């Protein structure tokens, strides 16, 4: 004889997702939104690679999260439309992957940059 066991939600335990994981989800979603750009990281004036958006995520009391997001956008492009797209994508990804919703999302545009000019770099002559 086999007994069927169905535990109530309270008896199954709970899932905690560390804020670092939530931060990575936010940054990945923001970086994947058209119109956002990676920027050069510099340490003491020396280039040390590329970086994308930067986020700080904190858990709210109701399971929602507060997000402070800093990013670089492509210029010329409509900033408001790009930021709205970032907000939508970040919200969708947090909901889909972590089952979380955003309570507050503050976006800071820390830079506008034109499209990359390729390996030649700015100021290089093409012959």
TrEMBL record:
InterPro entries on file: Asp23
Pfam families: Asp23
Domain of life: Bacteria
Family assignment from sequence similarity: Belongs to the asp23 family.
Name of the protein: Asp23/Gls24 family envelope stress response protein
């Amino acid at each position: 004889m086999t007994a069927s066991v169905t535990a109530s939600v309270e008896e199954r335990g709970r899932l905690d997702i560390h804020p670092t994981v939530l931060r990575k989800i936010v940054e990945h979603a923001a970086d994947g939104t058209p119109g956002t750009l990676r920027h050069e990281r510099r340490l003491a004036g020396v280039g040390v690679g590329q970086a994308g958006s930067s986020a700080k995520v904190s858990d709210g009391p109701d399971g929602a999260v507060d997000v402070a997001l800093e990013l670089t956008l492509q210029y010329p492009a409509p900033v408001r439309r790009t930021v709205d797209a970032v907000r939508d994508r970040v919200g969708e990804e947090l909901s889909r992957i972590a089952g979380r919703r955003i309570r507050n999302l503050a976006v800071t545009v820390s830079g506008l940059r034109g499209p990359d000019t390729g390996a030649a770099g700015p100021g290089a002559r093409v012959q």
